[in-house]
Write a sequence for this structure.
């Protein structure tokens, strides 16, 4: 064999795996630079993990699958590596850790790890075909030096998911899984803004740029974070989080205010400043540009003192449970993650190795384990990549 291990994809999962894998290891990537998604992540500062990461922060057909890898290589293990590498970081919010400086420091740390482990990196190289060979795999590559067939005992698929095709994202891992009879679950764009159509889109467009803290819910799952109105629809952390749980046609329930706070404010206003309009009163609780839009089709009196019990109920319903039906999402063009992927039922949760295929591993985003917004997806890439690297180490 030419190599002990060949890794397809020099992204987060592939690079950490290569930094663990001993022996002759080659990492190939069709992009012209390694770790491009790391570089652009977190607005260039990479939200590289989350202090509170656990299996509950992941969506998968098997919600228990991620537990083993996340427990064996935790956020603390990665934070330790970051700190030992002298990379300064901070917690932004909700346990989300970002570099103080640049995401490029994380890429450099990983590349140093690969070099120290003796791994080779070959960019601008794609895979034309993969076939089995006794005791391993033959991989037909095409790179800057033209076509070349290489053999390897272990083949690690770390080619990521479908988001941002402009950056070279492909469904390669899903196709390769199918070639080996490994099932793939339904995939769709997650952590992605919602789009609306018609009058609703026009309304949101008119307040594009307005953000508000909210509770957004779909399908029984709710997130309390900010929403951002955009010229196409709804974005912001709460919308991105909920998008991973949404199916086309389903309703979103937007809560802009807690019911108790709203009713208290109205009660007090009726008593002490009854001549003011409901709009004026609500502007104290919500962004001024948002209030007329939320209230536009409600019948309300001019003076808050004249608000009837039925009108208050309508107002409460609108502000605590506004029912919105998106036209769709922005899709893989802007999504941060692919939901679904290689079916975990076909993989070992301890090693990420395919149960039916010796030496074949799937790690990172291509697997049906999808994290929430907030550093969870990188943590899955680190944990799954690390356990695969350890399994290879143990087997060599
Ligand atoms: P990744 O996509 O990193 O790597 C796959 C590699 O395979 C790429 O280098 C690609 O070029 C290569 N490849 C693909 N197909 C190939 C083929 N056919 N042949 C050869 N090479 C191929 N997550 C998080 O936790 N915190 C954050 O701050 C962010 N921010 C963020 C911003 C944006 C804009 C996006 C799009 C995504 C994020 N994410 C994130 C998600 C995170 O980037 C993602 O989950 C990880 O990069 C997944 O790591 P992988 O190694 O699995 O795939």
């Amino acid at each position: 064999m030419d190599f002990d291990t060949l890794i397809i994809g020099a992204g987060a999962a592939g690079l950490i795996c290569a930094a663990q894998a001993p022996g002759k290891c080659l990492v190939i990537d069709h992009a012209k630079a390694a770790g491009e998604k790391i570089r652009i992540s977190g607005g260039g500062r990479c939200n590289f993990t989350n202090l509170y990461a656990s299996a509950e922060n992941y969506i998968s057909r098997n919600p228990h699958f991620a537990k083993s890898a996340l427990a064996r290589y935790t956020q603390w293990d990665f934070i330790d590596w970051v700190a030992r590498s002298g990379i300064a970081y901070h917690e932004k919010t909700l346990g989300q850790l970002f570099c103080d400086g640049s995401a490029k420091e994380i890429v450099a740390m990983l590349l140093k790890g690969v070099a120290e482990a003796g791994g080779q990196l070959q960019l601008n190289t794609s895979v034309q075909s993969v076939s089995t060979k006794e005791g391993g795999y033959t991989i037909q590559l095409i790179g800057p030096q033209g076509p070349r067939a290489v053999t390897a005992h272990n083949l690690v698929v770390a080619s990521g998911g479908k988001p941002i095709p402009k950056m070279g994202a492909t469904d390669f891992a899903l196709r390769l899984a199918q070639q080996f009879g490994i099932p793939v679950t339904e995939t769709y764009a997650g952590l992605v803004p919602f789009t609306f159509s018609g009058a609703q889109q026009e309304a949101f467009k008119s307040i594009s740029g307005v953000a508000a803290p909210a509770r957004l819910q779909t399908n029984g799952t709710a997130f309390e974070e900010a929403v951002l109105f955009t010229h196409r629809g709804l974005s912001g952390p709460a919308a991105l989080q909920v998008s991973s749980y949404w199916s086309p046609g389903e309703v979103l329930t937007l809560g802009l205010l807690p019911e108790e706070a709203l009713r208290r404010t109205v009660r007090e206003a009726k008593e002490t400043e009854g001549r003011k309009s409901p709009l004026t009163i609500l502007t104290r609780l919500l962004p001024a540009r948002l209030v007329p839009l939320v209230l536009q089709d409600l019948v309300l009196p001019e003076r808050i003192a004249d608000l009837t019990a039925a009108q208050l109920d309508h107002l409460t319903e609108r502000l605590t449970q506004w029912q919105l039906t998106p036209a769709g999402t922005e899709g893989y063009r802007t999504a941060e993650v692919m939901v679904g992927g290689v079916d975990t039922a076909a993989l070992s949760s301890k090693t990420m190795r395919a149960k039916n295929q010796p030496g074949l591993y799937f790690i990172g985003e291509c697997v049906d384990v999808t994290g929430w917004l907030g550093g969870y997806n990188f943590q899955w890439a680190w944990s799954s990549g690390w356990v695969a690297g350890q399994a290879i180490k143990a087997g060599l």
